[in-house]
Write a structure and sequence with these properties.
Number of helices: 12
Shape: globular
Strand content: 15-25%
CATH class of the largest domain: Alpha Beta
Bound molecules: oxa(dethia)-CoA
Largest sheet: 5 strands, mixed
CATH superfamily of the largest domain: Thiolase/Chalcone synthase
Order of helices and strands: EEHHEHEHEHEHEEEHEHEHHHEEH
Low-confidence stretches: none
Distance between the termini: 38 Å
Number of domains: 2
Structural class: alpha/beta
CATH architecture of the largest domain: 3-Layer(aba) Sandwich
Oligomer: single chain
CATH topology of the largest domain: Peroxisomal Thiolase, Chain A, domain 1
Radius of gyration: 19 Å
Strand order of the largest sheet: 1-7-6-4-5
Mean pLDDT: 97
């Protein structure tokens, strides 16, 4: 119940769409760029290829706008009906204005509110959690949530430990009041800024604005201490998933799908194992797209949409820079096979 005594509405995901750039960067091509091999990347990460956005002047908004255009067409939604657009991204087109502002303009949404959420790889869960509140309170009826990242813009392609895992992509979902009682039933978001030392971009912000020196020292790229991040990711993804299961009285056999952030196949497998879930109930797209940061979870929903049935119980879970982490528990609201057959 809201403080004023009115019942809160359940928010539901009522549509999903994904966009992936055409260019495929394979492990073989990476092995020609840095000292690595298809065998190492496959064994240590599960990734075979990732997509890269090519084209001068194209930023994250290009991919986000493509995903939102597809989403609106697929759900029969006019841009003028959208009440709010939230974009989770770590690679905004510009420091300001927000990428959400740019996407709204490109798609013809507005003038309604739009803003970015910065929570690195957990960004989509943060943004979904925010969208849920706007629906629950009755403030909005149609919220578009985008997860989009052009990671290739901030990856150092001489750093073999980092460059092999990331890729570019965008996914978008429509969040509306539930048509049938199914929907987003719980969310958890967490952060610990002390994790910054292990995963961040050193220059380009107000602490260290860009200079010729910061560029020469390669400080505008992702600095990732992979092994340290891996350790936290394994612990926190499982912990937050178990917490959301426990506070919603969910046993492993009641969960139809785990939708994990795709950073490393070994992190995904370990999370599933600790939750007691077999891998055939875990969405995995990492082999095709790598780690697309805020886009991994909506891209999983997009890839698996045709398998999803109304009432399917799902746990979404992510971990990323910040550190940030989070989880969502939802029941799927529509027949994914019917939707994909119709398009
Ligand atoms: O998206 C959210 C945040 N990010 C993550 O969750 C990523 C978490 N971390 C990881 O997924 C893994 O740590 C990586 C895939 C990034 C790295 O894998 P790792 O097994 O942790 O490797 P490492 O950095 O501990 O390095 C182990 C060895 C080192 O060689 P020595 O010192 O043992 O001789 C590295 O130099 O593997 C070497 N290495 C590589 N060898 C071939 C590191 N990267 C590569 C590479 N190819 N690409």
């Amino acid at each position: 119940m809201k403080p004023n005594g009115h019942p809160q509405k359940i928010a539901a995901i009522t549509g999903v769409y994904g966009y992936l750039p055409d260019y495929v960067l394979t492990n073989a091509e990476l092995a020609r760029m840095v000292d690595t091999s298809d065998a190492w990347i496959t064994e240590r990460t599960g990734i075979k290829e990732r997509r890269i956005l090519k084209g001068e002047g194209l930023g994250t908004s290009h991919m986000g706008a493509e995903a939102v255009r597809g989403l609106l067409a697929r759900t029969g939604t006019r841009p003028s009906e959208v009440d709010l657009l939230i974009c989770a991204t770590t690679t905004p087109d510009l420091v300001f204005p927000s990428t959400a502002n740019l996407i709204s303009d490109m798609v013809g949404i507005g003038p309604v509110g739009s803003f970015d959420v910065q929570a690195a790889c957990s960004g989509f869960i943060y943004a979904l959690s925010i969208a849920t509140q706007f629906i629950a309170t009755g403030t909005c009826r149609k919220v578009v949530v985008v997860g989009a990242d052009k990671m290739s813009a901030i990856i150092d392609y001489t750093d073999r430990a980092t460059c092999v895992i990331f890729g570019d992509g965008a996914g978008a979902v429509l969040v509306e009041p539930s048509p049938n009682g199914e929907g987003i039933l719980d969310t958890i978001i967490r952060s610990d800024g002390a994790g910054m030392i292990h995963l961040h971009q050193k220059a380009g912000g107000s602490r260290l604005p860009p200079t010729a020196e910061t560029v020469a020292k390669r400080l505008h790229y992702v600095h990732q201490e992979g092994a340290a991040v891996y350790k936290f990711a394994i612990a926190k993804m499982a912990e937050v998933s178990q917490e959301i299961m426990s506070r919603n009285n969910l046993r492993a056999d009641m969960i139809h799908w785990l939708v994990p952030h795709q950073a490393n196949r070994r992190i995904i497998e370990s999370t599933a194992e600790r939750m007691g879930l077999p891998m055939d109930r875990v969405m995995v797209t990492i082999q095709k797209y790598g780690n697309t940061t805020a886009a991994t979870i909506p891209l999983c929903l997009w890839d698996y949409e045709s398998c999803l049935k109304p009432g399917d119980r799902m746990i979404l879970a992510a971990f990323g820079g910040g550190f940030t982490w989070g989880a969502a528990y939802l029941t799927w609201a529509y027949d994914g096979a019917e939707r994909t057959a119709a398009h």
